[in-house]
Design goal:
- The protein is an alpha+beta fold.
- The chain has helices at 2-7, 12-47, 105-110, 124-142, 168-209, and strands spanning 50-74, 77-92, 95-102, 147-152, 156-161.
- It has two domains: 49-165, no CATH class; 167-203.
- The chain is 52% helix and 29% strand.
- Strands 1-2-3-5-4 form a five-stranded mixed barrel.
- Helix 2 (12-47) packs antiparallel against helix 5 (168-209).
Length: 210
């Protein structure tokens, strides 16, 4: 019995391999749990009840109200500037009621009143010019041409997005890499156990021959 136990004791290299395998298994499970609770679940909730539609611009306008944004000009240099609020009203193929267009879900959460948030510049005039350029783009370049937009009737029935922050590719990678980490860990553990078992059997056969 003592010889059998000694035969199945792992070497230092095998012990390190087993530890690495178990570490990868734990990392994969914790990643799936963390991403599922903190990121994947809210992303799926945002996508639930949503879909795509064809949008047509109804009106493009600047409101008199201005909003604050934070700019950075160095490691220890930060400040506040202001930008005008641009609203792009559209009609979707799913509803005749006008809806407010947003760049994506992040912009919608940051400022639900406006359709566009410019990169925050130190100079208010530069922010104004960026917003005016975007206004001309929607009026002159897009005009009455239909384009694809995205909506969610459950969460924001009066708003549509130009693009989704959480698309299928991001969700796939969110699920794929923790699973790959978990499977690699399982594979390392199984291969280490199998290699040790084969080595013990080979040693036993060798002793019987002698």
């Amino acid at each position: 019995m003592a010889r059998s136990r000694a035969a199945y004791e792992y070497t230092e290299a095998e012990d390190k391999s087993m530890r690495l395998g178990f570490l990868l298994i734990a990392a994969g499970l914790l990643s799936l749990l963390g991403l599922g609770c903190c990121w994947l679940r809210p992303a799926l909730q945002e996508r639930g009840g949503g879909g795509s539609a064809n949008c047509t611009v109804l009106a493009v306008r600047q409101l008199g109200e201005r909003f604050a944004c934070t700019f950075s000009c160095g490691a220890a240099c930060r400040g506040t500037a202001r930008y005008p609020c641009l609203q792009v009203l559209v009609r979707t193929s799913r509803s005749s009621a006008p809806a407010l267009l947003h760049e994506d879900e992040r912009q919608l959460r940051t400022n639900p009143k406006c359709s566009y948030i410019p990169p925050c510049a130190r100079d208010d005039q530069e922010n104004f010019e960026n917003v005016t350029f975007k206004q001309k783009y929607w009026k002159e370049k897009v005009g009455s041409q239909p384009f694809t937009c995205y909506f969610n009737q459950h969460l924001r029935p009066d708003d549509v997005m130009l693009k989704r922050t959480h698309d299928e590719t991001v969700l796939l990678h969110c699920f794929l890499w923790p699973v790959v980490t978990f499977l690699v860990g399982v594979l390392i553990v199984v291969l280490t156990i199998c290699a040790k078992s084969l080595a013990v059997r080979a040693e036993a056969i060798k002793k019987k021959k002698h």
